[in-house]
Amino acid sequence: MTIRLGDSAPDFTAHSTKGDIHFHEYLGDSWGILFSHPADFTPVCTTELGMVAALQDEFEERNVKVIGLSANGLSEHDQWIKDINEVNNVNLQFPIIADGDRNVSTLYDMLDSQDPTNVDLEGVPYTVRSVFIIDPAKTVRLIMTYPASTGRNFDEILRVIDSIQLGDKHSITTPANWKKGEDVIVHPDISTTEAKRMFKDVRVIKPYLRLTNPPM
């Protein structure tokens, strides 16, 4: 199954460190981030999950629920969380799906089809580092895939959430390397005349590129 931007995020039920997860029910009216890990007790994943735990307040501030996934069982997850908390000095509270059977990984096309060494002892592929940002309507808004060897930048994931959420509220887009609080771009569908009625300050760089202060 191939998932594209704008698709409905597939629903599923899975075991997790916080009990059985009914994905759409778990998300409720919140935004969601689903992100996968190749295996427990691996170095890059340990740093990633620690970072997400450290950023928990940032995600909650944006009404985002995070849920991790790793291709191991619950007993391994529970032991691994102790390591994650110790190594990163955090208190990991979000659920981690136990996907030893790869059901969710297959549903979301997270399995590694390129690296022949990224397999378990039975030769079954592990996941790559996939990220899905899902809005409250259960629509997929971002898909990001890293190789197993490279840890993700979760500051970038927060930045994208800020951009999408701001764009959903106002007729704007965001430029390259934009950060929360910086100037934004007037949406191309909005005329300059209309933009000047909507925003306090509109600076015309080109007819198709108009900047304005970030809406509140």
Brief rundown of the structure:
31% of the residues lie in helices and 22% in strands.
Fold blueprint:
Elements: E1 13-14, E2 21-22, H1 23-27, E3 31-37, H2 43-54, H3 56-61, E4 64-70, H4 74-88, E5 96-98, H5 103-107, E6 129-134, E7 140-146, H6 154-169, E8 172-173, E9 184-186, H7 192-198, E10 202-206, E11 209-212
Parallel strand pairs: 3-4, 4-5
Antiparallel strand pairs: 1-2, 3-6, 6-7, 8-9, 9-11, 10-11
Question: How would you characterize this protein structure?
Answer:
The protein is of the alpha+beta class. It has 2 domains: 13-152, Glutaredoxin; 170-212, 2-Layer Sandwich (Antioxidant, Horf6, Chain A, domain 2). It has 7 helices and 11 strands. The protein has helices at residues 23-27, 43-54, 56-61, 74-88, 103-107, 154-169, 192-198, and strands spanning 13-14, 21-22, 31-37, 64-70, 96-98, 129-134, 140-146, 172-173, 184-186, 202-206, 209-212. The strands form 3 sheets. It has a 5-stranded mixed β-sheet. A hairpin with a 5-residue loop joins strand 6 (129-134) and strand 7. Helix 2 (43-54) packs across helix 4. The chain is elongated. The mean pLDDT is 91.
